[in-house]
Design brief:
Blueprint: E1 3-7, E2 10-13, E3 18-19, E4 29-35, E5 44-48, E6 54-58, H1 61-66, E7 72-77, E8 80-86, E9 89-94, H2 99-111, E10 117-121, E11 127-132, H3 135-144, E12 148-153, H4 179-183
Parallel strand pairs: 2-6, 4-8
Antiparallel strand pairs: 1-2, 3-7, 5-6, 7-8, 9-11, 9-12, 10-11
Helix pairs in contact: 2-3
Length: about 180
Amino acid sequence: MDLDERKGDSMILTHVCGTLADAPYDGKKVDPLQLDYADAQKRLLRRTTREGRDIALRLEPEAQLRGLQDGDVLFEDGDTVVAVEILPTLSLVAKPEGPEAIARFCYEVGNRHAPLYALGDSAAGGLSFAVLYDAAMEDLFQKLQVPYEKQAVKLEERCRLKLLSGTHHHAHAHHGHNDRAALA
């Protein structure tokens, strides 16, 4: 992120500078700004790095859409960089077996409007998905007979599955929606 302004000892940052994987940051000391899953999605945030730097984030719209990701470099100061460290959060990691089970699992989780994250192929040779831990969601996994584990996982926006069509075709009330339009 670019240093937008400095107020007292606080730095107000608005853009991501790069990632720790980028060549200019090789060998630099990292002062992590530790964020949980929810904080990484916020536009406005004030936190302190592990070494005590006071950081205020005021994300520009394009940075907010992207979300902060593990390893994002926010600021460079000599031989030190401030970089995002996403903290693991208690999640349910499911491993539905077969295309039909994956489709039903994704449908049921999506029908509950829960964020769903694709973790990729597991070592056992199948897709795995994560959702934030919730007792009701755990009940759903049991009902669907989907193998799962409770794990601390780094949930990142780039792994979140999103509906591409923009449509929403199931019947239940959403407050604030025009019901007549939904029936047309």
